[in-house]
Amino acid sequence: MKIYSQTIVIPTRNRQETAVFAVKSCLNASYDKKQIVVVDNSDDDSLKNLLSDAGVLNLIDYHKNDSVLSMRDNWEKGLEIADGELISVIGDDDAILKSSMEVANFAFNRAEIDVLNGSSALYKWPNYPFPGRKNYLSFGFGEEIKINKQPQEMLRSVYSYEVDLGTGPGLYYGFVKKEFMNRLKKIRGKYLIDKIPDFDSGYATLLYAKAYAISNRPLFIQGHSAKSNSGSMRYTSTQRKNIEIFASESHESIDGIFSSSLSDLRSNEAVIVSAQLRFLEEIERVLGKNALVLNKEKAWNYIKKGLSEGYDAIGFISSIPMLKRLSEEWNIPYAINNKFQPGISNSSLIYEQGFIKKINSNATELNSSNTNSNAYYAVVVNGVKLGFQNILDAVNHVDAMLPTMRSSTDKDFADYSKKLAAPEMDFKLLSVRQLINQENYEEAFDLLEEILSVGDVDMVANNEVEAVAENLQAYDWASRYFARRFSATGSLIELERLITYYKKIGADELINNLNNGLSLLKIEKSH
Hints:
eight-stranded mixed beta sheet; 3 domains; Spore Coat Polysaccharide Biosynthesis Protein SpsA, Chain A; alpha/beta
């Protein structure tokens, strides 16, 4: 199986306190052939200093811009630097899960795809502005990877609003082949064209890719912090300022970010609809004039729904005149109840924590159509009760709950993950041997305990266990190890060692019973 080189690009601007943890999550990912690119668009060098203090600056490709670039240009710079065969982009308050690069490598070996996206877990940092959502963590359980071999048909479904893909399957929280990115660059002149880079990447996948895949298994954690776009845009008082800053740094007017019809509707959904309208020009160049038409009635309802789900009702109420004017301009029905119902932003962790049964409407078109609506498919975790300090705590929690790759029902997947784990285990065993040669048996014991806690039955440390056991008289410990080894392999040699240690701990009755039982069995697997 090919081992793809992979690059994770982290574009960042003035979020130094979270960007360090984004970098650490990438370094913690269980994959050797990786590159981490940080393109720092900040006003000062404090991130560089924090990375140096954390001892990770020399482990990454760090680049500081001389002047502030637009978000798109900062992404573009990172993509130019990236030399991996698979490329991802994460935000500076996001994280990658530890096994995700392994999952990506396996998926690209098994399927002819240009892009792999995953269902992202969601974590809200302790400084998130809505009190009821601080240290909120949610994630799904799925293992299926579903391939879409007709991306342009999905694009049609998106424009008709039969499916909501958000910004689409692209670089953001995804893995994209560099060769596909280079193909896009030849066609478009740049990797990214639109001023909203995550949208541009996702919709370029739908327009140009041969096939893409969606993993029900989370691959990344989408972080929302005090300074994140998603966080600030959920509050009416801050969203206008946030949009103005984004427009200024992108060297754009507000009308350049939104279509003129939507410039007064300051919401994430209005940003996406505006980008969809801009992207129609490129679609027509590729597919022909009027190949796709935006369903404006459904787009209007999409914007209305987003405004009504903010953390305060002020944004929705104050947007009603603009929504009414837009319905008239687009010649579509105006559908807003004229009675205000308080409680619109009553959600909070204490009400939401626990297992989730509700089907995610965004996923139903991409995942199995036979989803059991009574089955649990996700969980909301109260990180306040667990004492989460940052997104790395959320990563550890998700990693501790998701099935490991080694438990996969796909034998090739399980075998592949064991093979990837072998070099790390071999290195640790080498350290154990060095400690034994130095007669440092206590440290050798501690390191062996760490190795054996992985529980990988294919790992062989027979000689090391014997050396430590004999010198520390840890005979009971050694007997448990060889009992496990014999149970996994059926090796008669390991059975002999097991009996030796049973004798040393005085388990004579157990030895007799074991021998009697073995006399009635045929050992089918012997090494």
